[in-house]
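During the reporting period the student researcher (J.K.) took over the structure-prediction task from the postdoctoral fellow and processed the backlog of single-chain submissions. One of the processed entries is reproduced below for the supervisory committee.
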Amino acid sequence: MLLAVGTALFLLLHATPGGPIVALAGEFADADTVADIERRFGLDRPLHVQYLKFLAGLARGDLGESWFYGEPVLQVLQDRLPATLILVVPSLLLAAGIGVPLGILAARSRRRGLGIMLAALLAFAVPSFWLGHLLRMAFSVEVQWFPVQGMTDARSAADGLRQWLDIARHAVLPVATLTLHQLAYTVLLTRSAIEVERRQPYFMTALAKGNGRRRAEYRHALPNGSPTIVTLFANRVGWFLAGAVLVEVVFAWPGFGQLADAAIRNRDFPLVIGIVLAVTCVTLLANLVADIVYMAIDPRILPHRGARA
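J.K. obtained the following C-alpha cells:
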C-alpha cells in the first residue's frame, strides 16, 4: 500500500505543471540559478532515475530532505505531529463518547431519532472549514470566549500547567469542528448496528429474562454490533488527519495542516509525499489495531486450534 501510494503521488507531482523551480527560485530566475537548483535536488536527472532513488530511500525509511525547510522530512513531520494529535485524539474520543450513545438513543425512539439524525446530517453537510469559520465568528469574535487562532497566546510566557491550559483553551474550537463533522457517521452507523442487533433472538431473550431495554442494549446489542463501529473509526482515522488540514489552516494551528498547505504552495515534493505517507501509515496501523480489537471483543473471530486437524 505504501509503495502504491508513494508511486502514484510521485508521478502525479512530477506531472503537475509549474514545478518546484518557480517556487524555489522565483518566476524570473536566470538559467544559472535554475540549473544550480536542479543539480542540488537532483531534478536534472531522468524521471526513472529520480524514482529509483525515491524507492531506495523509502525502503530505508528515508523520505529525503525538505526543499523548503532544509531539514529531513521525518524531522519536520516529527516536529508537527504532536500539534495535530492534540486535535485528532480528543476528537476521536469525543465522537465515540457522544456519537455512540446518541446512535443508541436514535434507535430506541423514532421521534427523538428523527431529530438526532437531522442534526447529525446537518453537521456533516456543512464543510468543515466553513463550520470552523462559523464557530470562530460566534465564540471568538462575538462572545469572545475562546481565542481566534493559534496554539498558544504569543503575549504570554506561561509554562508548565498554565501552558497546557492555554493550549487546551486554543484547541476547543478546532476540536469541536472536527468532532461535529464526525458525529454524523458515528450516529448513523451506531443506530443501524443497534437496530439490526435488536431484531436478533438473543436480544428478545435478554428482555424476556427481565433485563431493561437500556441494559439489554448496552450489555448485549452494543458488544455484538461493536465490530462495525470499530471498523468505522479505524477507517476514519485517516480522514481525521486529512480533515485536520483544513481545520488547522482556518485556526492557524501549527500542525500537519499548515505544514501541508506550505508544502503544496512551495512545491516541496518530498514533504508532500512524506505527509501523505504518514497519513497512510497511521490509517494502516489503525486498521491493524481494529483487527486486534475484533479478536478481543468477539472471541469467535479467533481460529480454532483444532481447525487444521
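The committee noted the following: Residues 161-198 form the longest helix (38 residues).
J.K. will present the remaining backlog at the next meeting.
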